[in-house]
Amino acid sequence: MFYFCAMPRTLSAPVTVAFDYTRSTGPVLGRFLAGLRDGVVMGGRTSEGKVVVPPPEFDPVTHAALEDFVEVADTGTVTSWTWVPEPVNGQPLDRPFAFALVTLDGADAPLLHALDVDSPADVETGLRVRVRWRAERTGDITDIECFEPLPEGESGSTVQARETVDPVTGIVVPIELDYLYAASPEESLFYTSLSEGKLVGQRCPSCGKVYIPPRSACPADGTPTAEEVELPDTGTVTTFCVVNVPFLGQRITPPYVSAYILLDGADIAFLHLILDIPAEEVRMGMRVKAVWKPREEWGTTIENISHFAPTGEPDADYESYRVHL
Amino acid sequence: MRDVAVVGFAQRQMAEFDGSPTCVELLVPLFAECYEQTGWTRRDVGFWCSGSSDYLAGRSFSFVSAVDAIGVIPPVNESHVEMDLAWAMYEAWLKIQTGEVDTALVYAFGKSSAGVLRRTLSLQLDPYTMTPLWPDTVSLAGLQARAGIDAGLWDERAMAEVANRSLTDAEKNEYAIRKGGSSVEELLARPVYADPLRKHDCAPVTDGAAALVLAAGDKAREVCERPAWIRSLTHFVDPMSMGTRDLTRAPSAQRAGAGADLDGVEVAELHAPFSHQELILRTELGLGDDVRINPSGGALASNPMFSAGGIRVGEAAKRIWSGEASKALGHATSGPALQQNLVCVLASEGTDD
Q1: Which of residues 250-309 of A touch B (CB under 8 A)?
Q2: Is the Cβ pair A177, B18 closer than 8 Å?
Q3: Angle of helix B85-97 relative to helix B308-321, nearest 10 degrees?
Q4: For the segment B164-194, what is each residue's pLDDT rounded down to a tens digit?
Q5: ipTM summary value
Q6: Domain end marker among A168, A187, A222
């Protein structure tokens, strides 16, 4: 459901888009991440003899697959840093911190990670730091919680060669992004009208086609559509599908019908549900009418219409909707 | 090679676009401006290419919705890149070089303000070792700025000089969303934000869209009194890792510049979303003190994602059209800390002239 925000011309609503990316790691990153899981930082030696962390999958000069792994210390030196006064969601620390490039002892190239210090005054280039390991490690870059300053007088841990390594083969990276999603002015008109029980589309001044929901421009000729057209809540099923497959978030028990409905007077069909009829009886050309939810449940949403149901009228001629398929 | 010129340019830039992230209603008037500049209709455009990203829009297939602004009956020859307008232009330039088409309109759009831009851009990083840490754009630029300060290559004063000149020049740019220069001293007196960066060292979050029109040979001469001929168009990319490249340099910019005909460039529009990045680019491209940098105010005045690079090319083209310059450079960047760089050299004379 949309609501009016501070900018009154359009409706907007918060939207969160999230997906857990499953990624295979391959032999090089798999080895690096296995090291993190085991509490060891693994670098790769390039053809030029440099130890790079994380190890590159292919040599930057010869382009050969990298095979020479080197364990480096979990202590190192800050080579650059920047203050993060307003951390964003998902960063290693939820209070102000520094991002730092840290060249670990035994490595020749720095690793990017967070550095936990209270203020910019507590960090400088050249600062000695060590890895703060996460207690529960899974084989992920976040197994390093962050870096922390190395207490004075303490030296780094000694590197111990591993005898066997069980490489990580895959990781899951959850991605979640928050937006304030705005409707276009035309879409805003459509949703505002719905909250009053009306279906409002727009007509293209060039070709005369009526679009519902209205679009900012006629997709046929690119002309802005300005003229508002109120449409009835009756129409014709142009095409449909029977949903038999359950999916996450499904609100109706399958089988049920999702159909393209061409409202009378419209030139474009839109998707809605066909209920109050067995799925196997739904057909192309069937005449339908909107079944509205009780008025007190209406908002600025297409869900004000619960579904469409058969009117009982004779089916529409194929010719009457052929061009709208 | 066919002689191809930039013959049209339109832009809109704003702090917050009050509308859908498909930006159709922004694009319709932009295309209208391009038609007016060329006297064409949409049917005179041989090829269309857009630049945008669904990650920015927060919805799927935003570039398909944007095609509404063109009108596709009869069907159009159309493509899309998830890159800046400048790279959409590169694709169109190649298309014209193949001889398949003579004209192109390229456009880009983005509503950066719909999400948290500096966070969203973490998704362009290495998905195994970087994105899980959500390194934001400002932080990555801060690491680069510090590296140069530590190396003695620039200082906060040099960065403030870039910002002050940009904000002063932006006063004459109706599309700039941050403008008003003061003095280097005043800028340095402002608080440090993401140490070592102050807010004026960072491009403002900007919504917007832009379009460029390209035409080959006589098609260009027909519609433009003084076409901005593309003399060079090159782009290169550096490794993404922040650890394996010298952050004080942009080798891909240097290579792009080395592959371009930069002799006699009078004006350069550099796409530097952070003040120190302009200093890097000037060095990598070998631009002397006699080259006028960013008369538009540049990216520190407004930086709409996916169109700001192409806007640099459009601003450079305007200097050619007006006769103010006979050779101008437009530069675009993409990726973290100047990872990818494109150089476009425009001149009042084509190679055939």
Answers
A1: none
A2: no
A3: 60
A4: 999 999 999 999 999 998 999 999 999 999 9
A5: 0.95
A6: A168
